[in-house]
Amino acid sequence: MIVYLQQDEIDKAKWDACIRKAFNGNIYALSWYLDIVHKGWEALVEDEEDEYVRVMPLTGNTKYGIHYLFQPFFAQQLGIFSTKILDNDIMNAFVAAIPERFRFVQVNLNIHNQLHSNQYRLVPKKNYLLDLIPSYPALSAHYATNTKRNLKKSLASHLSLVKGMEPVLLTQMFRQNKGREIKHWHEEHYQRLHQLMYKAIFKGFGQIYGVYTGQNELCAGAFFLKDHQHLVFLFSAVTPEARQNAAMTFLLDTIIKTYAGTALVLDFEGSEDANLARFYRGFGSKEVTYLHLEINRFPFPVNHLVQLMAGGRVGKMYRFGKKG
Hints:
4-stranded antiparallel beta sheet, 14 strands
């Protein structure tokens, strides 16, 4: 039976055990990660023999007295995670179990939650994944012509990659460049990102890489999350110079070279932006689809008004560039 649990009712040891055993578990769904990206998260849980076998985090908030679910920053895909079979009926049962008090829902499911229903709106979103099992020569052979050209440009620029850059240097570079254009990012988001990076690095799940020019000037950087299955390209920053010397192409190629021949999947975290999608595909990555779930429980005509007001929220967090 699926039960709704508030934050203080969740057994986080059982929760993390479920995520680690789940065939579709990801790092976004671990309890320590959720504690950072959305304090007070709640959950739907299916328990068997004193173990959580299927779970779904609920990241809710209240505004103007209205309870709603939304996708937190820095967690691209959540949804339903399972240690057992997960078919359409079970997924629909979880969605139906979302408490009625959440009048409006806008959340991303994970790529294994390929749900089918006419009871709510399901919007396909794109992500890009690269299987790193092959050798580096085999992987780089599938680079696009433009990616190979940019890589030659970066090598001619005598760039160097440094591991272990301080999180604050990465966010400072972002704020001074792309961050100036992003109005929906506020101080609380940067503080949350700092906390996430420091915690992930401390726990052995995170690493920051910086790219320096031949004149020893920082021009690009990226933060990756790493577990036993995935290497997630979570956040990056570039200077104008990096756009000239293709520093981000150099950084990603070096990462691919470092982890080639391992059982990891490089997760580019996708983009609906055509230029970014082309950039990710340039490394030989494959397009996969995950679903954005929308439920509007307001009566007509309020439901149309709420839908219109919420329309601009979808995907905002992922609209910053991760290209160089």
